[in-house]
Amino acid sequence: MKIALIGKGGMLGSDFSSVLKTTSHTVYALDSADINITNPQSIQSALKTLSPEVIINCAAFTKVDACETEREKAYAVNGTGAGYLAAFCREHHTKLVHFSTDYIFDGKKSAPYLETDAPNPINHYGASKLAGELAILETLDTHYIFRIQWLYGHFGPHFIRTMVALSKTRTEFQVVEDQIGSPTWTMEVVKSVISALEADAPYGIYHLANTGYTSWHNLALFVFEQLGIQATVAPQTTDQLSRPAKRPLNSRLNIQKYLDLGLYQPATWQEAASTYLADDGASMIG
Q: Which residues are catalytic?
């Protein structure tokens, strides 16, 4: 396949780039200097001559709290930009892989969310990502929308890296215990998506994460135990944390639709996190 990867410098895009380079696919990796997805002319200029069969869009504005104040940027990148890519794909008969989020849901459901559950975002990040989903659905049939969550990876800032960095100067923490979801390693997302593309999986929306669920509090405890870091981690509630953007308490995603494809099977969140920490833990501690 000829694949155009957009957002190669981000946490997810970096891992896509490194893995795709080891495959037989022809890959054109682009960053914000090469393409501006909020500008249709830039999209045409960057992609038309490449004639990709697949576009993997990892470009996103993912700073959840910043989206509350930088709303114009959030909706331009996460919403309008996704629609512009879908329009290009429709015009050039190209497949589109796009990433959405658990934050399109309000977190009030008592069970894990299905792809068919009605979205109801409670912050502007979630609303902007939902706008992107709707723009794609209205424009393009040949799409894969993967709703992912709680990402960590080899590149960029994320919860695990932040906690380990803070542990160098602190031994006591308070971490939220009433938000529940699936910590998800970017490499697991990459392998799953490539597997779906190579198998010509049915188009549509899929929930994708490592299996099993936990809280941010329990994840912090797990990371510190795995790395032998001595620290006290006290639980706190989301209300006590008081962040600018509201967070859904139930972020659990039901990934059975993806699992039923019989393709690459994501590991449990514990297995994935253990492997990641074996790879990156020493460098983070050092």
A: 125
